[in-house]
Write a structure and sequence with these properties.
Layout lengths: L1 H22 L3 H18 L7 E8 L4 E7 L1 H24 L7 H20 L3 H19 L6 H32 L12 H18 L8 H4 L5 H7 L7 H13 L5 H22 L3 H22 L2 H32 L10 H4 L1 H15 L6 H13 L3 H6 L1
Antiparallel strand pairs: 1-2
Helix pairs in contact: 1-2, 1-4, 2-3, 2-4, 3-4, 3-9, 3-13, 4-5, 5-6, 6-7, 7-10, 7-11, 9-13, 10-12, 11-12, 12-13, 13-15, 13-16
Amino acid sequence: MIWALLGLHLIGFAVIAGIGDGLGNRVFAVAAGAPLVTSIWVIGRVGDANATTAQITWVAGLDLELAFRVGPLAALLTLVVSGIGVLVFGYAAGYFANGIAGVGRFTATLLAFSTAMVGLVWADSIWTLFVFWELTSITSFLLVGYKNTDADARLAARRALLITVAGGLVLLAGLVIMADSAGTGRLSEMTNIGGTSAAVASVLVLVAAATKSAQIPFHVWLPGAMAAPTPVSAYLHSATMVKAGVVLVALAGPIVGDAAPWTPLGISFGLGSMLWGAIGALRHRDAKLILAWGTISQLGLMVALLSVGSAKATFAAIGLLAAHAVFKAALFMVVGEIDVRTGTRRIDELSGLRASMPLTFAVALVSAASMAGLPPTLGFPAKEAAVEAALGLAGAEKAVL
């Protein structure tokens, strides 16, 4: 089934790239097909603890293979990627109701990104993970720089590409060290490694994760990427691409999490980003920038929790990842709708929208409540789990968190 779903994504990409411009806004419905089918398949796997696997060996002697594995964690992440992808494609049809130049190119690139993210969360070999990691960077570059006549968009796209691709090279080095020490290139077969190799790999993996998840000092690309159209921000910069670094930390933790640098460096990245992101959000009046800086902060909390390594902290981080993807994507779409209707995103220029945009107001209210962790929203149990995990720690880790 894995090959069929990946093939469906590729067929959708080829069709849209070929005739997408002639379909007008109907192209978004075509693009939503593959993510929708993928979401339905994943939902059908609920309660199935058995992993679905697929692989093609290229050079057996060098352990080069394209390998995928969909277990419980990958299934949850797939639902986040594909489920929100369906919503974003539907939102884009309304957002670009008056048309968009090169609609086929834009939609094909967005679907290509969705495909890359699905491949990333399904990856079970270091080479598969690296290839799809870099594909998300390349497609992100094309989407952020979609308005190629806008100098700010071009600059933001180049900055994002430089930082995330450089992080990918760091990741490759870390993955190779992990594979060499573990004696296998399969992530699902790697066990906890120790010694100098684990220490070096742990640093490399955390640095790579920080570049992708916009952790300080690599965070500068994310606020600039708000130059992208709002559907791109709602998908890439809340629910998917920025989560790739968090996913990497979750995958690598059981393998190199006992290395001496892992916890202090991960907590430093995470809590530093959480604090600096919150300060950055308070400094801005552009709603998209507020959400971008808030994303940096919230991703920092996830990284810090995963760096601790306890079962409760890991559970809380994954819960926060899912909740954040939902409420932050919704908030980005709310901001886009407000921008289209009013012509501004500045919060000091907006007021009285509850009467003229009641549905948008309701979505914003529920999403903001979830971000604040208020019951009965999805953010509440996720935040409660994070607090419980922090209180369950001991010593310096408990004091810091």
